[in-house]
From TrEMBL:
Domain Reverse transcriptase: start-end pairs: 124-406
Protein name: Retrovirus-related Pol polyprotein from type-1 retrotransposable element R2
Organism lineage: Eukaryota, Viridiplantae, Streptophyta, Embryophyta, Tracheophyta
PROSITE patterns: RT_POL
Entries under Pfam families matching the protein: RVT_1
The organism's place on the tree of life at top rank: Eukaryota
InterPro entries: DNA/RNA_pol_sf (IPR043502), RT_dom (IPR000477)
Amino acid sequence: MAFFHAKASHRRKINHIDRIRDETDCWCDEPASIQGVIQRYFHTIFTSTRLTREELNEVIDTVPTRVTSKMNRKLLEDYSAEEVKAALIQMFSFKSPGPDGMPPVFFQRFCNIIRSATTTTVLQLLDDHTFNPSLNFTHIVLIPKCQKHDIVAHFRLISLCNVIFKLASKTIANQLKPLLDHIISLSQSAFIPGRLITDNVLVAFELNHFLKNKKRGKEGHVAVKLDMSKAYDRIEWNFLEDMLCKLGFNNRVVSLIMLCVRSLTYSFMLNGMQFGFVKPERGIRQGDPLSPYLFIQCAEGFTCLLQAKEHNGDIRGVAAVRRAPKVSHLLFADDTLIFCQATKEAMECIQGILEKYKRASGQLINLDESSIFFSSNTAHEDRMEMATLLSVSIDSMPAKYLGLLYFVGRNKRELFSYVRTRVWQQVSGWKEKMLSQAGKEILIKSIVQSIQSYCMSCFELPDSLLREIESIATNFFWSNMERNKIHSVAWDKMCISKKEGGLDFRKMEMFNVAMLAKQGWRIISNPNLLISCILKARYYPDNDFLHGKIGYNPSFTWRSILAT
């Protein structure tokens, strides 16, 4: 208990906002002045740019209708009490409470007492489109995104909603989720059942490996990495509504979704104290179960703009080999990677697409987090000209996409040392004296062994690095502030199952192999995936995956998967 109390106190201290810089770069340290800076910043974010019909149509006209009459009939059916109950069960029990002060566990635990009133209120909103406006009142909490957080832009906005309204949003989201695979283009991998973030990572790695090694040919290729600033908070409501209508959703479905979006009101929480009131004109909430699915439907407008230019031949995608499918862009929510020919005309085309999408959707490119990478045969003068045209920096290796490296050189231990650093930082921040060995076991299994899982899904990490991570874990397990670190049992024996006398810790090398084997099985089971098609064309064009060879100049991801 002392450990978790200390962690909570430390976290509260980190999240406490003592002072902040205002628009003129002056420090504000009085609560009233800090509140004023925050309110002015978000007033700008939440104020609509008043779109014209022409600006909207520049994007909307490129979007095809994808929602069928059968899908609409399903969406128009009355919601049932069972659907509301299922949504309640799916909610995380101990999420931070909103203005109602109640986490979902209260509604789950006392469901037999309050089920009738809760279900009636939710169904009244979903079926009759009527509800008490106070249900959609939301607290905004600011969480630091980086160590140095001295301006409002350095904070992540989290919306804390009332559970009743969150339950209604979750029920709508459950209806939409099964349809998204038929509505959203294959280039988008976020929030859609059956699509994984690692698919994008593997495709990006193969294509960037191709760019890195392309040293011949007159025409070069380019990868442009884009990041949107406050992506959810800038979505224009008119754009969202027009996108839903153009995709083919019935007017009643669109009306319900827009009711949930437009009835929103905000108040801010600063160091535990509530202040201010905002009636936004645009934006969707981070923390609302429905928001991710609405965002990727808005992002479909950007995809359609790119596809239209690709169809006209203005931009051409990149293929890892001649037989492989061409890829012009990859999306994971607001993280975008564009591949095309390295010409001034192509960059001007991309710049035009970004301007159209920005005007229609309200999105703003975060130039500090955006970058560009060129194939090796692109002249230095051309690189500088194109980077200047897009106002982004030229990527230097090692670079990251979706949190993972997409270039790996010879010194893999050094490149992946950030994994070891993250593990060490976590362990060194824990107070050993406050933890029993049972507590340490739980923390090692839930945190230390999960940190590298994502990286292990795509890369075979060096054995020496994995042994070092195991060493950090075992030192932490046996350490005590009052005595020397004596390891009573070897790590290998601690990895044995509890039935056989061990502690069920993961053997890192074996776990790495298992995670990569899952990628191999996914490629075998889903031959129509983009990554499956690229790998087949590149490494086993006339054979199947199980008979694939390492090939000439293979990527590190292919080497890793093949090693299993």
